[in-house]
């Protein structure tokens, strides 16, 4: 049985000054259900680098994990402006987003760098959340499966039955657009991804793999999405910035 996981992706939003107020409001809104964090569902916040240490202190012992939004694939060296996995583990980061479509679109990340980063994370015991997904043009041209197949190609050999790699299916056309994939569209893509993993890595790896949906997920649609058999959670951008909205989604996730 795969444990659901709900991750907020704050992107380039919020400051350290907002951290205490955000988590106070979030834990208030979740109430005693917070006791189920880590047991019934994993709850994660992917925050900007400069907020990591404070987000970790604000949530220590409260059952949530703090993730970075990116990492470099190398251990160190002349890479101005980059952050390595050991720099993340030093401050207590447990997970990292890899290959978010905004990284692919604006910062030239590609399937090769995504695989390198994924491997770097796994080698140091950090759980990578690897993002894949097609653009609107690709969907309209009926290339969704081909795009997913290609994006999964280099990362699939790194997936094993430990469940330590997480995939986020985020159709680019649904991110921040208010358009959500229908539960049926999302389920089809998730199933396709799981079968890629089944074919190359076997049943145990496929059955353990958590696949999150991302793209305008919000309190109103999350329950329906989570009902789909291959949807194991969500990666939430806009709606995770509001502690009450995200708390409502967390409650749905705990009930799923
Ligand atoms: P959104 O973003 O929920 O605002 O669409 C999701 C994401 O980019 O991870």
Our Rg estimate from Cα atoms comes to: 17 Å
Class by alpha and beta content: alpha/beta
Bound molecules: 2-phosphoglycolic acid
Strand order of the largest sheet: 1-2-3-4-5-6-7-8
DSSP, total strands: 8
Mean pLDDT: 97
Q: How would you describe the shape?
A: globular
Helical fraction equals: 40-55%
Helix tally equals 11
Largest sheet: 8 strands, parallel, barrel
Range of strand content: 5-15%
Q: How far from one another are the termini?
A: 12 Å
Question: Uncertain segments of ≥5 residues (pLDDT<50)?
Answer: none
The string of secondary-structure elements, in order, is: EHEHEHEHHEHHEHHEHEH
Give a short synopsis of this structure.
40% of the residues lie in helices and 15% in strands.
Describe the structure.
The structure is a single chain. By secondary structure, the chain is an alpha/beta fold. It is built from 11 helices and 8 strands. The protein has helices spanning 19-30, 52-59, 85-90, 101-106, 111-123, 136-140, 144-153, 183-201, 203-208, 222-226, 243-255; strands spanning 5-9, 42-46, 64-68, 95-98, 127-132, 166-169, 210-214, 233-236. Strands 1-2-3-4-5-6-7-8 form an 8-stranded parallel barrel, surrounded by 5 helices. α1 (19-30) packs parallel to α11. The radius of gyration is 17 Å and the shape is globular. The protein starts with a strand and ends with a helix. 2-phosphoglycolic acid (PGA) is lined by residues 9, 170, 175-176, 214-217, 235-239.
